[in-house]
């Protein structure tokens, strides 16, 4: 098996562990507080990496870097909230809508054209999302699931910003603005509802910060050693890992509509990815 494929699978496994840790600690710690600890740990670690690699802060492009930071911060807040409120695999399926939003936003802001096949597949993805969200049930679950869709949209916005910023800014600097902004945004939001973590919860929160960075390292290595489209497709194995953790630790069993909706979303996104590859 190629090393790039192994790294892609490892990144999916590591990120699924992070998701499970977030869900576990969110039963007693507010999700916004989890965002704070995840962000401040990430900020310290990425700053140390910048110092070690002698990456200097830019004096230009600050507004764009700040916008990327805000989008990333809001993405993390809505993502962690979704993880804390609905079954693990359901949340991951909804977050995997982000490639579709990337294509739509790229058309609007980067003037990239949508192919006929993409236009055909988008309604399939939308229908799959509706099956997963279940808007016809009018329950709190449906409302919480909408935050998963919002996190996918914010993730796509952050991805578009990264694509623009990566031409002039170092990856470490872009990540630093993301982590630092998320830290600053989360402080006032958690101020009145702060819950002092126990010793075990501090361990969980620290692990979330470290594990997420490890997952990012594996993902970067995957993109270095393998075709980007192949990596993106292989990352869908993360849904299986998350479903496994959800079943083992919380006895979460996806219902028929969630499974069907997930299959439609995954299948359409894979088709969109392969279409992109064939057009190069």
Question: What does this protein structure show overall?
Answer:
This protein is an all-alpha fold and 280 residues long. The chain has one domain (3-278). Helices cover 80% and strands 0% of the residues. It has 12 helices and no strands. The protein has helices spanning 3-25, 31-53, 62-85, 88-95, 98-109, 116-133, 140-165, 171-190, 199-225, 228-234, 237-250, 256-278. Helix 2 (31-53) runs antiparallel to helix 8 (171-190) and helix 4 crosses helix 7 (140-165). The chain is globular.
List the topology elements:
Elements: H1 3-25, H2 31-53, H3 62-85, H4 88-95, H5 98-109, H6 116-133, H7 140-165, H8 171-190, H9 199-225, H10 228-234, H11 237-250, H12 256-278
Key words describing this protein structure:
280 residues, EamA_dom, mainly alpha, transmembrane, DMT family transporter, single chain
Structural class: mainly alpha
Question: What's the average pLDDT?
Answer: 84
SSE arrangement, N to C: HHHHHHHHHHHH
What is the rounded distance between the termini? 25 Å
In total, the number of domains comes to: 1
Give Rg in angstroms. 18 Å
Q: Would you count the extended β strands for me?
A: 0
Helicity level: over 70%
Unreliable spans are: none
Q: What gross morphology would you assign?
A: globular
Largest sheet: none
Give a concise summary:
This protein has 280 residues and is mainly alpha-helical.
């Amino acid at each position: 098996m190629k090393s790039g494929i192994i790294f892609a699978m490892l990144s999916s496994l590591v990120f699924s562990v992070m998701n499970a840790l977030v869900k576990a600690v969110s039963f007693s710690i507010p999700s916004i507080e989890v965002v704070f600890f995840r962000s401040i740990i990430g900020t310290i670690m990425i700053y140390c990496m910048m110092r070690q690699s002698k990456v200097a802060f830019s004096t230009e492009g600050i507004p764009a870097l700040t916008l990327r930071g805000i989008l990333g911060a809001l993405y993390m807040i809505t993502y962690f909230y979704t993880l804390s409120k609905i079954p693990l695999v359901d949340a991951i399926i909804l977050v995997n809508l982000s490639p579709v939003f990337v294509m739509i936003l790229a058309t609007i802001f980067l003037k990239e054209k949508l192919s006929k096949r993409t236009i055909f597949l988008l309604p399939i993805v939308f229908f799959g999302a509706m099956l997963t969200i279940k808007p016809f049930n009018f329950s709190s679950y449906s409302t919480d699931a909408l935050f998963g869709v919002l996190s996918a949209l914010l993730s796509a916005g952050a991805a578009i910003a990264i694509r623009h910023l990566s031409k002039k800014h170092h990856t470490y600097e872009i990540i630093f603005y993301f982590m630092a902004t998320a830290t600053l945004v989360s402080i006032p939001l958690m101020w009145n509802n702060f819950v002092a973590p126990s010793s075990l919860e501090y361990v969980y929160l620290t692990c979330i910060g470290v594990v997420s960075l490890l997952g990012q390292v594996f993902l970067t290595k995957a993109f270095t050693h393998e075709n980007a489209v192949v990596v993106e497709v292989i990352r869908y194995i993360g849904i299986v890992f998350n479903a496994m953790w959800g079943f083992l630790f919380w006895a979460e069993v996806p219902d028929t509509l969630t499974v069907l909706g997930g299959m439609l979303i995954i299948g359409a996104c894979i088709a969109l990815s392969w279409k992109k590859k064939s057009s190069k």
